[in-house]
Specification:
Elements: H1 2-19, H2 42-51, H3 53-56, H4 71-85, H5 98-107, H6 113-118, H7 126-142
Helix pairs in contact: 2-7, 5-7
Length: 149
């Protein structure tokens, strides 16, 4: 039994080391900020920055663990997918996910629970969520996204 456990552990360690050689998920260069919405207030932007910007802007704060596979693969995919649906840094481009943003916050699906575990400041209080949703609604009304929302 002990012999098998050691073998399994060594194979797992070997796979982990090999996974570090896969280059996917390591491009952590943030593209330039092209255009932000005209925020209704600084508070709305601050709340969005705290809870949304890492995946929904070009201002991602890449933590040290975003360089370790296989987590780096998942984080890179989440940021890429988030930016493609709603990107507060490219407001001059289509934002097809903007129409779902307020519902996602209201339902609790954004920010995702696993993100909040590693980023406690993203775990907004009920009052902050309400303020963010109202602020996004006002922002989207005054500075409508292109192609959605």
């Amino acid at each position: 039994m002990r012999k098998w456990l050691v073998r399994i552990l060594l194979v797992g360690l070997g796979l982990f080391v090999v996974a570090q050689l896969v280059p996917y998920g390591r491009n952590h260069k943030n593209p330039p900020v092209l255009a932000e919405p005209r925020w209704d207030t600084g508070q709305t932007r601050a709340l969005a920055k705290s809870a949304c910007f890492d995946c929904h802007s070009n201002l991602t704060n890449w933590k040290w663990y975003s360089n370790i596979a296989p987590g780096s693969w998942l984080i890179y995919r989440d940021v890429t997918d988030g930016r493609s649906s709603l990107n507060f840094s490219e407001w001059n481009k289509p934002q097809d996910g903007a129409g779902d943003a307020i519902d996602a916050i209201s339902s609790g699906s954004m920010p995702p629970w696993f993100y909040v575990i590693l980023h406690p400041k993203a775990g907004l209080s009920h009052a902050d969520k309400q303020a963010l949703m109202a602020g996004l609604a006002a922002t989207f009304k005054n500075s409508p996204p292109i192609g959605g929302g």
